[in-house]
Design brief:
Elements (H helix, E strand, L loop, with lengths): L1 E6 L3 H12 L4 E4 L10 E5 L2 E5 L15 H10 L3 H4 L2 E2 L3 E5 L2 E5 L3 H11 L4 H13 L5 H4 L3 H8 L3 H13 L10 H14 L2 E2 L4 H14 L3 E3 L4 E7 L2 E7 L4 E9 L3 H6 L16 E9 L12 E5 L14 E9 L15 E9 L1 H5 L3 H19 L10 E7 L1 H8 L23 E3 L8 H17 L5
Parallel strand pairs: 1-2, 1-12, 2-9, 6-14, 12-18
Antiparallel strand pairs: 3-4, 5-8, 6-7, 10-11, 11-12, 13-16, 13-17, 14-15, 15-16
InterPro entries: Amino_oxidase, FAD/NAD-bd_sf
Organism: Bremerella volcania
GO molecular function, one term: oxidoreductase activity
């Protein structure tokens, strides 16, 4: 009998496990795959390490500052700031036809860019910042509502609205074409007001430290251990059934697998209406180049691009991918200490993709289409950044098929379902969810989601 069983060894699941283990709970984390991290993981190929998911950590806080999500995370999980070793971005951009907005971890740069390129909107942008500062974090009463509608009441230039939405939707929005007002406020603060950072060693360092602390506290982590069903008796979740038929009993069960995926584990007849699943999935190309990206003319940390004045945030229906919009990131372009950097140059490009089309391709055509779309995506990218392809020495690419294989998310959805379950509860007693479908996004958000569910539901009767 465990005090808490946690499904999924992603960021939120590991964080929940650490928090509970600190209070002496007997905790077991179950992970279907042979590695940890979920959407934010890593792999090794041909002697190189590749990150998956993580471009950058949002919600950056300088060493010594105690405010903000990162400061709360460090206190709750009892990490030192240096254990995350976060190095700030050098600077990013939003690029639309004929106009670009630079931003970094100081909101004043973005404000000055808006004042220069949209002079009539400077005061309106200040009004928007004021409303966001006043926003009360994730409560059902103020979360819903169209961000586009609210923005149009404050900012009168449609192009500026599209440009502000672009990075925020790319970094955590499951709703097509629009986003919840609460999600907009959370993402605005995490990206524009706090900003991007990254450890030199990438996501591996974060995961290594999370797992190390969990195990040091006596937590149990089982890899290659998938959950096929939840054990529910008289409306209460009392444990799980594993893929091999083994039953594990737990007083509480926390699932970081996603809302749809968790409801799939419930027995027939007691599954609630689950709403619409997420539809947005991605492909990502990774190019290894023989020079540092800055040496070939790419000195930004992240570029969010869109090739028209209307931002295209919708699942592509007519083709495998949509190259009209995308994200370009170089893990080389962070302010690493003492002049350190990665040994080789890396450029990662993310584009919207159609899950159904990718998963239904026969294997030979699947391999062919990966090569073809690498070229098409690269053709799209060099409209916005300098030509880099003659310096490429290795490439890789993952698709919605890859995302589904490692997450089991329906439709290969990266940000879960559009409807979020903010309080983390389900229709079953003692069963809770954490992670993306609770409304938390990004590395720091995912970790804080696990902490909040652990605090609110699994520690309430501890001791």
């Amino acid at each position: 009998m465990y005090d808490t069983i946690i499904i999924g060894a992603g960021m939120s699941g590991l964080a929940a496990g650490i928090r509970l283990a600190y209070f002496g709970q007997n905790v077991c984390i179950l992970e279907r795959h042979n590695t940890i991290g979920g959407l934010n993981s890593f792999y090794r190929m041909a002697g190189r390490d590749f990150d998956v998911g993580l471009h950058a950590v949002t919600n950056f806080t300088k060493k010594g500052e105690k405010k903000g999500p990162l400061g709360r995370l460090l206190r709750q999980l009892r990490f030192k700031w240096d254990e995350f070793a976060l190095c700030p971005q050098l600077g990013s951009k939003v690029m639309f036809p004929g106009v670009e907005l630079k931003f970094d971890n100081d909101i004043e740069l973005l404000r000055s860019e808006i004042a220069q390129r949209f002079p009539k909107q400077a005061d309106n942008f200040d009004r928007l910042r004021g409303q966001i500062m006043d926003y009360d974090d994730i409560t059902p009463d103020n979360y819903a509502g169209s961000a586009r509608t609210r923005l149009a009441e404050i900012i009168s230039d449609p192009l500026l609205i599209e440009m502000l939405l672009c990075p925020l939707m790319w970094y955590g929005n499951a709703r097509e074409q629009d986003m919840d007002w609460g999600q907009f406020c959370i993402m605005f603060r995490s990206i524009y007001m706090e900003g991007f950072a990254r450890p030199l060693k990438g996501v591996r360092l974060l995961l290594k430290n999370l797992v190390k602390k969990f195990r040091e506290l006596g937590g149990e982590l089982k890899l290659r251990t998938g959950v096929s069903a939840l054990k529910i008796e008289e409306g209460q979740c009392v444990g799980v059934t594993l893929d091999d038929g083994t039953e594990l009993m737990g007083r509480k069960v926390v699932s970081s697998a996603g809302w749809w995926e968790t409801m799939r584990m419930c027995e027939e007849g007691i599954k609630p209406p689950a709403g619409e699943p997420g539809r947005l999935s991605f492909v990502e190309t990774i190019s290894v180049i023989k020079k540092q990206p800055a040496e070939v003319g790419y000195d930004s940390t992240i570029v969010f691009f869109n090739d028209s004045q209307k931002f295209h945030w919708v699942k592509p229906e007519d083709d495998l991918c949509d190259v009209r919009t995308g994200v370009i990131c170089s893990p080389n372009n962070f302010d690493y200490q003492d002049g350190a950097n990665l040994d080789e140059g890396y450029l990662r490009v993310t584009a919207l993709a159609n899950y159904d089309r990718w998963v239904n391709l026969p294997e030979p055509q699947y391999r062919f289409e990966k090569n073809r779309w690498y070229d098409l995506i690269s053709d799209s990218v060099v409209r916005f950044i300098p030509e880099f392809r003659r310096h490429v020495v290795a490439v890789d690419m993952f698709t919605p098929k890859t995302i589904h294989r490692y997450t089991w998310h329906k439709n290969g959805a990266v940000y879960g379902a559009p409807e979020k379950h903010l309080d983390g509860t389900t229709h079953v007693d003692n069963l809770y969810i954490c992670g993306t479908d609770q409304g938390y996004v990004g590395i720091i958000g995912s970790i804080m989601s696990g902490v909040s569910v652990a605090n609110r539901y699994c520690l309430q009767d501890a001791g």
